[in-house]
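Attaching the record inline, Q. Sequence:
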Amino acid sequence: MSQTFRDPQGGGSLIVAWQAKARSILIVGGGAVAAGRVFNALEADAQVTVVAPKLCPELEYRAQVQQITWRNRTFEDSDLDGSDMVLTAISDASESRRIADTCKQRRIPVNAADINDLCDFWFMSTHRDHSVQIAVSTNSKAPRLANRIRRQIASSLPRGTGQAVEQIGRLRKRIREADPRPENSKRRMTWLTQLCDYWPIEQLAKLDSDNIDSLLDAYVQDHDPQSVRIRDTSESSGMPSPVLANRTHTPDTPNTGEVNQGRLILVGAGVGDPELLTVRAHRALKEADIVLADKLIPEAVLDIIDCEIYTARKFPGAASEAQDDLYRRGLEELAKGKCVVRLKQGDPFVYGRGGEEVLFFRSHGYESEMVPGLSSAINGPGLCGIPVTHRGVADQVLVMSGANRNGDLPTVPQFVATRTLVILMAVKRLEQVVDLLAEHGFPADLPVAIVERAGCSDQRTVRGSLQTIVDVVARAGHNPPGLIVAGYSVNVLSDAAIQDRYLDPSTLGLHSSE
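Structure, as predicted:
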């Protein structure tokens, strides 16, 4: 025989997706493991009966809302009557073995928790997203590792994978209704295969009823799915719909489609020194067609940008208008297919409103790529010789904003001697902050520092105590932006901190002994 075929590896499990809808599944046990089994069975639309003299809180809830049938007693052999599957989750190994042996005699598939040799099947580590279910099995050799593998697989899936499957399911049903002839089965399958292979998953997830109608028309007219151009039915301009125009890209993926495909990158500028930008942030700034920058981005960072820089025109009382202006310009450039970098000071997600911007652009069909930056809350003090944690001195850090949404001062907890407090955007309200801390039990001799323009060539640290810092800053002046650090870690490096290269000589003497 000249033709050869691969040999079976052996030792695996026959993996199937068992249709359990309306099937009767019996679960013996009422603890946390049983609750997990119950949830999996309910997700499969099974009819679930639990036999146990006592239930954990989750199963009590499911019994109360009639998601399960509860038999309030220990297991009896008659409980197997009418069962399509049995799962045991009890601590009595001998009883589990007896139940499993009885099930095998009656040809009922059974799983006994933690007793592998009794199991006809095992539960796998699963990921669920709408109709998408991904299961990982190590054939009972390394269940914990299966969870890690499953998480890694799930994290690599494109955003909206489950929704994409739902939308293709809707389209598939519509096509079968429009063309039910059995002889056209191959045509239907081929057309849908080309669609699924050609379109990015992210765009399949965004299909709406109008888009599905357009695709159905293309099928009926025997048009190749690769030639379909979805139009935005809400506009009369004839511009491409965001369904195709706003594809999500990774930093290393070229933009090669015919349709404008705007790319949005949310970049943290860090603490001010361009040498402290991440490599990925530097690359994004070089690839950008336009950079939408915060007003306080240091010139040294802006100097490395080659394209147009559009700066937020923020001034007191008009922050919302400036933000709207940035949104408007961003959408305009994305619609042209441009690579737009939104450059924010520090880290966008640490009091930078980065989450708000992600949600805004997502609502307009654009997903943001995230490039974190060094946050001044942690790295600013460090650059100026102040470790926010230090063994035996400070074992926790609390970061707060002094400019809350309604202009209120932050809610300050009671003083903890081993906590370092970092307050952003509050130096202009220093006297009010000092009074607030004193009211909450912060001692008068607690070291306090004002860290100014951390990471820039003119960075400076002004030091004092809770009692003296207001007067010290009044004499030394203030060069924004800055932040407040309060705690015993402020002077933990003692005079060495005052002498280091990060401190302006003008601050010598303006430390905690003042």
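The longest helix spans residues 161-178. The first strand starts at residue 24 and ends at 28.

More tomorrow.
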